[in-house]
Amino acid sequence: MEHFTIATVAEKSPDFRRVLWTGQQTQLVIMTIPPGGEIGEEVHEGIDQILTFVSGAGEARVGGETKAVAQGDLVAVPAGTKHNFVNTGPNPLVLYTVYGPPEHADGAVHRTKEEADRAEAAGEDEPPTS
Predict the structure, then answer these.
(1) Are 84 and 31 in contact (CB under 8 A)?
(2) pLDDT at 130
């Protein structure tokens, strides 16, 4: 069994993205977006995503709509939908997200968005295939 006090684990992580757990059908990832930062506009074909916000303030930009997000908010992003999440506050925007199926390499840790982008471009952040 994996057990996390998820808000505490997420708050303690300084990393842009850290994969906490990967199963056959889903994946749990924590993220910390610095002030003025963003996840980056993207589309996950064939992958649903649910994001829960632990602290900070930001904007959810999903499928052409924009809404403010803060602690306790949850946003569901259906597969194939263009989305981005932007930190609009003075503090880190901290969240955890569940992908179904997995989107990232098991155990991946990317300290910055730039590091995450490089890993993806180099093919080093591929989800497990089995």
Answers:
(1) no
(2) 65
Tell me if 25 is assigned to some domain.
yes
Residues 6+ positions from 118 with CB-CB distance below 8 Å? none
E strands in 2-128: 17-22, 27-33, 48-55, 57-62, 65-70, 74-77, 83-87, 93-100, 109-110
Looking at the structure of the chain, the number of domains it has is 1
- Whether the Cβ atoms of residue 20 and residue 12 lie closer than 8 Å to each other: no
**Segments forming the whole domain that contains residue 117:** 6-122
Which CATH number do you get for residue 70? 2.60.120.10
pLDDT, averaged across the chain: 97
Token output for 2: 């994996």
For 14-71, write each residue's pLDDT tens digit: 999 999 999 999 999 999 999 999 999 999 999 999 999 999 999 999 999 999 999 9
Per-residue pLDDT at 103 = 97
Instruction: Classify residue 2 by burial, with Cβ atoms within 10 Å: 0-12, 13-18, 19+.
Output: exposed
- The encoded tokens of residue 49 equal 């995503």
Phi/psi of residue 101, nearest 5 degrees: -75, 180
